[in-house]
Design goal:
By secondary structure, the chain is α/β, with parallel strands linked by helices. It has three domains: about 100 residues, Probable tRNA modification gtpase trme, domain 1 (Gyrase A, domain 2, 2-Layer Sandwich); about 70 residues, no CATH class; about 140 residues, 3-Layer(aba) Sandwich (Rossmann fold). The chain contains eleven helices and 13 strands. The longest helix has 16 residues.
Length: about 350
């Protein structure tokens, strides 16, 4: 077996990354890249399960852990640059990058291995807990019970979102406070905020977590008929995103009863948020069948309730610990065949 390596953690920024190396001659490849602080070669330290040292090309302090015969884990800094440098050096030393992620897991079958691959793209602690539970369930599932398959397929969308965020689009007329709401929900200022209507000329998106669920908040351009060509291009993008969003939030101004656009609420709006309630004693609350939330992005009034409403809207039912959930296309197709 040739010496192989594979990034075991998600390929992205983090505190720590882990790169697996295996195959006869692995210690020799590591000798060419890694210098233990003891001054000895790595291959001479066969009796040490954990070796601390320096990665030659970057000067980074890291740890190499022996996990079996000719099998090792390089535990390094979680930056992309650090991982890419290790991959480059291992390849230069004769190792081959493995594309078979499943073979690096403890999976009992290919469907369980799909969950292991999904874990590499996990975004929050809450979704990680669900995926760990699914890893166990997919190793024990009874594929002779159509009812199990039918129940699992009810959570197809939920399973897809465990590895990609729910997209939430905030739409509405200019200057109703969409950018300010995005900033409060994210906990820092990302979108441009200005008193001039139409300041947000393009789509601004930010990834965050709400109630532990990964979400992408999209601050759309204010939708209006007038405006220059640049603004209109942003508005057209916003209309396209609204059609594909997992949740549409229609933001209106509590001080302006003309800021409500009935057409927007008819177009898949899930929540109507009445912003700026701190500026008036009697907010202009539109008549609509959609749930309405009264908030102030400035004072924070109603923001906790808004986050709870968003969480309920994107995940109306949270599957129990013993509920099978498909997290990949392969799993979904297998369940459809059984059901």
């Amino acid at each position: 077996m040739a010496v192989e390596f594979h990034e075991l953690t998600h390929h992205g920024r983090g505190a720590i990354s882990v790169v697996g190396v295996r195959g006869e001659g692995s210690d020799g490849v590591l000798d060419s890249c890694f210098a233990p602080v003891s001054g000895q070669s790595f291959s001479a330290l066969k009796n040490r399960p954990i070796v601390y040292g320096i990665w030659n090309s970057t000067g980074e302090d890291l740890v190499v852990v022996r996990i079996g015969n000719d099998a090792f884990e390089i535990q390094c800094h979680g930056s992309l640059a650090a991982v890419d440098a290790i991959a480059t050096d291992l390849a230069a030393g004769g190792a081959v990058q493995s594309s078979d992620a499943a073979s690096w897991t403890l999976a009992r079958n290919e469907l369980q291995a799909e969950v292991a691959k999904a874990m590499e793209s996990c975004l929050t602690q809450r979704t990680a807990r669900h995926l760990l539970q699914q890893f166990q369930l997919w190793g024990e599932v009874n594929f002779n019970d159509p009812e199990i398959a039918r129940e699992a397929l009810l959570f197809t969308t939920f399973g897809e979102k465990l590895t990609s965020p729910w997209r939430i689009v905030l739409c509405g007329r200019p200057n109703v406070g969409k950018s300010s709401l995005i900033n409060v929900l994210c906990g820092f200022e990302r979108a441009i905020v200005h008193a001039t209507a139409g300041t947000t000329r393009d789509l601004v998106s930010q990834h965050t977590a709400i109630d532990g669920w990964p979400v992408e908040l999209v601050d759309s351009a204010g939708i209006r008929d007038e405006g220059n060509a640049i603004e209109q291009a942003g508005i057209e993008k916003a209309r396209q995103l609204i059609a594909d969003a997992d949740l549409v939030i229609h933001v209106v101004d509590a001080t302006d009863d003309s800021s409500f656009d009935p057409l927007l609420s008819q177009h898949r709006a899930g929540l109507v948020v009445v912003n700026k309630v701190d500026l008036c004693q009697q907010p202009a609350v539109p008549q609509t069948d959609c749930p309405r939330m009264l908030v102030s992005a400035v004072t924070g009034l109603g923001m906790d309730d808004l986050q709870a409403a968003i969480s309920k809207a994107i995940v109306p039912v949270v599957p129990g610990d013993d509920q099978l959930v498909p997290v990949s296309t392969m799993q979904r197709r297998r369940l459809e065949q059984l059901a």
